[in-house]
Amino acid sequence: MSQASVQSVAIVYGFYIAQRGIAGLVLAVALGQRYNDLRIDVYEASKEFGELGLGLGMWPRPMSILARMGLGEQMKKIVSPLLDDKNGISMEFRKSDSKEGYSIHSFTRALSSMSSLSRQDLQRILLDAVSQNPNCNCYSNHRLDTYEETNAGVTMRFTSGGSAQADLLVGADGIRSAVRRQMFPGLAHPKYVGYGVYRGLIQLEDIQSEEHTIALDRCVVYAGKNKHVIMYPISRGKFLNVVAFVQEPYSNAAMSHSQLLATFDGWERDVQLLLQHIPQPIRMPLFVVEPYLSKWVSDGSRVVLLGDSAHAMRPHLGSGAGQAVEDAYVLASLLSKPLPEAVHAYDNTRREAAYRISGASRTAGEAYDLYAPELVDEADSMSDLGREKFRKIVDSGYVWSYAPFDFAE
Ligand SMILES: Cc1cc2nc3c(=O)[nH]c(=O)nc-3n(C[C@H](O)[C@H](O)[C@H](O)COP(=O)(O)OP(=O)(O)OC[C@H]3O[C@@H](n4cnc5c(N)ncnc54)[C@H](O)[C@@H]3O)c2cc1C
């Protein structure tokens, strides 16, 4: 255990559709492990601290960070056993917008292997770890409204009328962050990036009675013009997590299940089958934090942004939560330095790095939808040269996923 430069840290996070506070929870765990005298107050906007959510992919790099935090054995228990074989394919990319879909690229587990898991399982592990720290207080039903920063600390005001103080406030409050709204009033609203995302879980047994060629041991990206579908097994293979990305103008109205199926009319049969078996697709319009922020630290250096509040990105590389894990670990470690040095070191270490991944995610999405400038001529039928171009774009995007986490403590 080392000594933190501050005596108390407040973390705000809460409930937003099917995601819940991975960044805030990892930070609470990491701080508790490092600093035994640090008061950690976690404020959650929803009424209960609970678990909710669908599938999540975690790459070797964030998995190695969670292992450094002593959570490796527990993580092994919740990742899909289908990904154990080191020699097999980890990720396959298919051109699927015709009846005869075909594989255009893949990489093996030896290079990089996504651990697929249920968000609920991960949240349970993190909540268990948080609850073991007597210095960590979790307050539900506390939605942050505004904060006030002085030389002595930060006062938080909640929409319920109450207030609280801390030496440092961490805004891990997601894409519609109240903390970011106050730090950057002009960038309070995230940007809609033109995708409706339709997600659902399929019980493996529901699909087993059907004739199909779905590769159940890997993550598959079914690419096509202006839309794509991603599928991977979660919950130790009990479920398939299916996510369809459809380019559509912003609207409050979601497509019905039958409209979604019609949108993928003419695609290879496996895609149609997957979409048919989603019980009721959950739709969310896709937003990101753009333009990128010029800093993640307030003028007084007592408020910082972390996770999606700072860098919500397109999910095409499955990297947002992994980046949040990295933010949390780095910030926790740097808080052994005095303020403001600690938070500026965090900003310097993490901001550009996260935005690089955000840019790579955008490029990967352009490739999956076959409208990246290099691939436009390949959209109807992909030549060998087209596959090579696709491979280059995709491979450069995934480099971070297996790059060693070499942050010097
Ligand atoms: C379709 C899709 C698929 C994805 N797949 C992957 C993947 O496979 N792998 C991966 O690494 N990432 C993935 N991501 C990204 C990942 O979900 C996010 O990056 C991650 O959940 C961010 O965690 P967070 O804790 O920063 O934010 P959140 O999980 O959003 O939690 C922050 C919470 O704070 C709440 N809050 C808001 N305002 C307040 C307030 N005033 N007071 C208190 N709380 C507040 C928010 O409602 C929010 O729920 C995906 C994203 C999408 C959209």
What does this structure look like?
The protein is α/β, with parallel strands linked by helices and 409 residues long. The protein folds into two domains: 226 residues, FAD/NAD(P)-binding domain; 151 residues, D-Amino Acid Oxidase, Chain A, domain 2. It contains twelve helices and 19 strands. Strands 7-6-15-16-17-14-18 form a seven-stranded mixed beta sheet, sandwiched between helices. A five-stranded parallel beta sheet has the order 9-4-1-13-19. Strands 10-11-12 form a three-stranded antiparallel beta sheet. Helix 1 runs parallel beside helix 4, helix 2 runs parallel beside helix 10 and helix 10 runs antiparallel to helix 11. The protein is globular and about 65 Å long. The two termini are 13 Å apart. About 1% of the residues have low confidence. It binds flavin-adenine dinucleotide.
How many beta-strand runs? 19
**Ligand names:** flavin-adenine dinucleotide
Average the pLDDT over all residues and give the rounded result. Answer: 91
How much of the sequence lies in strands comes to 25-35%
Structural class: alpha/beta
CATH architecture annotation of the largest domain: 3-Layer(bba) Sandwich
Main beta sheet: 7 strands, mixed
CATH topological fold name of the largest domain:
FAD/NAD(P)-binding domain
- Low-pLDDT runs of 5+ residues are 14-19
The rounded distance between the terminal residues' Cα atoms is 13 Å
CATH level 4 superfamily of the largest domain = FAD/NAD(P)-binding domain
CATH class of the largest domain: Alpha Beta
Give the % helix: 25-40%
- Based on Cα principal axes, name the global outline: globular
Radius of gyration: 21 Å
Number of helices: 12
GO molecular function, one term: FAD binding
Family: Belongs to the paxM FAD-dependent monooxygenase family.
Keywords: FAD, Flavoprotein, Monooxygenase, Oxidoreductase
InterPro entries: cNMP-bd_dom, FAD-bd, FAD-dep_Monooxygenase_BioMet, FAD/NAD-bd_sf
